[in-house]
Design goal:
There is one protein chain. By secondary structure, the protein is of the alpha+beta class. Helix content is 40%, strand content 15%. It contains 11 helices and 10 strands. Helix 4 packs parallel to helix 7 and helix 4 packs antiparallel against helix 8. The chain is elongated and about 80 Å long. The protein starts with 17 loop residues before the first helix and ends in a 24-residue tail after the last helix. 46% of the residues are buried.
Length: 402
């Protein structure tokens, strides 16, 4: 008697869900054909320059509403769709990716709230003919990590304040280094309720920015990511209606942590895109440059570097897809972020060998940021396998494959 052991499931390492795969291909074409030719110009432009035409073209593809539910005119592709799209755009220009990524981060508290009235008021604007941007306002002059680490909250100083006054709140304070603040229609703002020490009374608000009391400060002259503008937001007796509070008073810390965990998958997608873009350049150069009578990729040293880059990028991609899938299908958002220790250092490590593949004269500084190796992470027991689950974004678990 012959016994055949047929698998009860199929694990596909190459194919994304059809809807996301189609979106990925569309975004990749936009990134390579439209964004990439302009990347250097965008990165060398004056600090306050902003390419609205590029944003309009991305908006037409849906890059400002990837996770917005279809009932509000969005694509409804969840965090998996966001992360995949961010990798494609970042491979061409990470600053341009961040314009769209920051907008989606600004939408996150509204999506997270589950409040149908708040969603109906704010989400449809991203489905219009003209692009609309949003931002997430957390960082302050003297308070950064103190607003996202619970045990540090009581040590926060000079935190933006909020006080209840009848049917509204009054906000006072200043936020700094806020991506998209220059043009955003609204911001998700975190302020501390008066009477609470440090940031222990942190509360989340949705604030319309085109109203009295809101001032947009000068654009920061950054070293990188110059295609997206970062600037200050000042609030002087700004009125916010009660219905614009997310999750009730004093729940801002929990909301901030949850949205940060959810966003890490998309940040890892951007980092993976940076790494992929660097490797693409290295591959092109190694197929053109002749050294010692043969192309660079035929030299063992160059081939080894390219192989190492490819392995780390695939590992980073696997981890961010895994994380994005968990965000879409596991609530609450995971408290761990396994993709971060791999993806960001992979971006740096992939950029590091690239100049050596081109020429030693263009080498980057040796002291590049280092992190834990992806292979070591994958060997950890708690990162093996997939818990499964079902939800609004139940796409299954796709694995590597750019």
């Amino acid at each position: 008697m012959t016994t055949t052991l047929a698998p009860s499931f199929e694990l596909n390492f190459d194919v994304l869900p059809p809807e996301i795969q189609k979106f990925k291909e569309t975004v990749r074409e936009f990134a390579q054909d439209v964004v990439l030719p302009r990347a250097q110009e965008l990165d060398q432009a004056p600090a306050a320059d902003f390419d609205w035409e590029l944003v309009k073209q991305g908006h037409a593809l849906g890059l400002t509403r990837v996770a917005v539910p279809k009932q509000y005119g969005g694509l409804g592709l969840g965090m998996l769709g966001i992360a995949v799209a961010m990798e494609q755009v970042a491979a061409a220009c990470p600053g341009t990716a961040l314009v769209f990524g920051a907008t989606m981060l600004g939408q996150t508290p509204i999506l997270y709230s589950g409040d149908p009235q708040l969603q109906a008021r704010y989400l449809p604007m991203f489905a219009g003919d003209e692009p609309v941007l949003a931002c997430n306002a957390v960082t302050e002059d003297a308070a950064g990590c103190d607003l996202i680490i619970p045990e540090n909250a009581r040590h926060a100083v000079d935190v933006m304040s909020a006080r209840r006054d009848g049917d509204h709140y009054v906000l006072n304070g200043r936020k700094k280094f806020i991506t998209n603040a220059r043009f955003a229609a609204f911001a998700s703002v975190f302020a501390n309720m008066e009477g609470h020490e440090g940031a222990t009374g942190l509360t989340s608000f949705i604030v319309d920015l085109d109203q009295p009391g809101v001032s947009r400060g000068p654009v920061a002259d950054k070293m990188g990511y110059r295609a997206c503008l970062g600037s200050e937001l000042t609030f002087e007796n700004v009125i916010v209606p009660v219905e614009n509070v997310i999750g009730g008073e004093l729940n801002g810390m929990a909301i901030n942590i949850a949205q940060s965990n959810m966003a890490r998958a998309s940040v890892a997608g951007i980092s993976t895109g940076v790494a992929q873009g660097a490797m693409d350049k290295a591959l092109n150069w190694c197929g053109e440059r002749v050294q010692g009578g043969q192309l660079l990729y035929k030299h063992q040293f160059s081939a080894q570097k390219i192989a190492e880059m490819a392995a780390k990028i695939d590992a980073a991609r696997m981890l961010y897809l895994y994380a994005a899938n968990k965000v879409d299908n596991q609530l609450p958002a995971p408290s761990t972020s396994p993709q971060w220790p791999s993806s960001s250092p992979t971006a740096w490590r992939s950029r590091s060998p690239t100049p050596r593949c081109r020429s030693s004269a263009r080498a980057l500084p040796a002291r590049l940021r280092r992190g834990e190796d992806a292979a070591r992470l994958l060997r950890r027991p708690h990162l093996r396998g997939h818990p499964g689950g079902a939800g609004a974004g139940d796409h299954g678990l796709p694995l590597p494959g750019r």
